[in-house]
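Subject: Sanity check before I submit

Could someone independently write out the structure tokens for this chain? I want to compare against mine line by line before I put it in a report. The sequence has 206 residues.
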Amino acid sequence: MNTWRVVLILMAAMALIAGCGAAPAAPPTPAPEAVAAGALDETYDDALSIRNQLAYGTLRLEGTAQAVTTGQAATLLPLWQALQALSASTTTATEETAAVQAQIQSALTPDQLSAIAGMRLTNAVLQAYYVEIGVAEVRTPEPGVTPQSSSLRDLPPEQREAARATAQALGTPVGSGSGGSGTGSEKKDALLDEVLELLSARAQGK
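---
Independent answer below. Compare away.
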């Protein structure tokens, strides 16, 4: 018994010494995505909303070294689909949209976000883009508002359900929309269409 007591005392003493000699914990370092999430600014003159900077900026990254990769596209596609689902809802809170936008920013690299921020995208530039892609009727949008062309209802069933599932997972559930007539009551967005088309193709390796 005396031998076991000695062993236990020695083990306790070693644990105490190890605890006293431990270095104080270093303050947590912000994750890269948390730092990068604040890279975009919408306070400059005629600035696009953060959402539209992310959308149009992603399109403008094509053909550069910062273009979205196949892996990123697979992550970003359901997030943008969730954002489209939220945009189609008349009961979506600003905080819900902001949460998904933050997830989208986190899926981009700091270099990609810096490149988008450096574009200083404006409503005038986006307006010119709509003319370029042939949007039929382009109205001068209020900041953060874009012309409309298609909606969540236009997605294949599996993509529509994926968008709803992603929104649910992010704590921003989206209704089925069955209560409405579906005629002119849902928000439609040409810019989102372009982003979804790009990401869908890239996620498939195209």
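---
OP: Matches mine. For the report I'm noting this point. Residues 1-8, 20-37, 148-153, 168-187 have pLDDT under 50 and may be disordered.
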